[in-house]
Amino acid sequence: MEQTTGGRGDGAPAVDERLEEGHSMTRPNTADSRDTNVKYIAAVAKILHANAEAAAEGWTEVGLLVNKAPDSQKVSTYAALERGSEHFDDWLTPSAWDELGKVLAAWQFDLSQQGHPKWTAMFLGGVRDGGLAWLPDYSPTFGKWRIRRKHSNLPAIQEGLEKAARL
């Protein structure tokens, strides 16, 4: 399901190893923004978990792609939910999309107010019996987490979930 939202609105994040090693010029060191990021990762994960439980009891994987253009208030999102080999569409309620939009906008606002770099794209998701991964991107083209309008976004979700499963 793809959604565009706007407005203001537990566990430590798994950070891509290249980010911590400083290997990517599109991924600045976010260590100083860690508390802010953890706060909002937990808020987004809580929304995803609650809605996954309501839509598919016993779900196995949940993933979210987010794109935020630096010069726009709009946020594009794509969410996937699976229970084994069963894929669910339209599983987030309108109120969940609204809440998610508010949390994402508040996250960007807080990063900006604190002088931290703002992500432009991210994967956030996890496996029920495994880890949770937050994988941000800071490039203006959204990197590997770019939401594709005319193509399936499931390969990107699966890539993020593979990382989450290893945590």
Short descriptors:
167 residues; 35% helix; Murine Class I Major Histocompatibility Complex, H2-DB, Chain A, domain 1; six-stranded antiparallel β-sheet
Overall mean confidence score, pLDDT: 83
Q: Could you state the oligomeric state of the chains shown?
A: single chain
Structural class: alpha+beta
CATH topology: Murine Class I Major Histocompatibility Complex, H2-DB, Chain A, domain 1
Radius of gyration: 15 Å
Strand content: 15-25%
Region (Disordered): 1-33
Biased composition (Basic and acidic residues): 15-24
Biased composition (Gly residues): 1-10
Brief overview:
By secondary structure, the chain is α+β, with helices and mostly antiparallel strands.
How would you portray this structure in words?
Residues 1-10 have a biased composition (Gly residues). Residues 15-24 have a biased composition (Basic and acidic residues). By secondary structure, the chain is of the alpha+beta class. It has a single domain (31-165), classed as Murine Class I Major Histocompatibility Complex, H2-DB, Chain A, domain 1. 35% of the residues lie in helices and 22% in strands. The chain has 4 helices and 6 strands; from the N terminus they run βααβββαββα. Strands 1, 2, 3, 4, 5 and 6 form a 6-stranded antiparallel sheet that branches. Strand 5 (121-127) and strand 6 (132-137) form a beta hairpin. It is globular, with a radius of gyration of 15 Å. The two termini are 26 Å apart.
